[in-house]
Amino acid sequence: MDLRRIGNLLNGSTALGVLLARLGRARLRRGPHGLLVAEGVLLPWRARRR
Question: Which segments of 1-50 are extended strands (E)?
């Protein structure tokens, strides 16, 4: 396991990303170097308007 993957597991960013992907009904796939990529996220967030 490389250092980046270990860091992501320890700080919880991978778990949070997977949770958001599941909530947004995204498809998860493996990217380069073991990275998880979420495609087609459908979360109802809107960008702030100024």
Answer: 27-30, 36-39
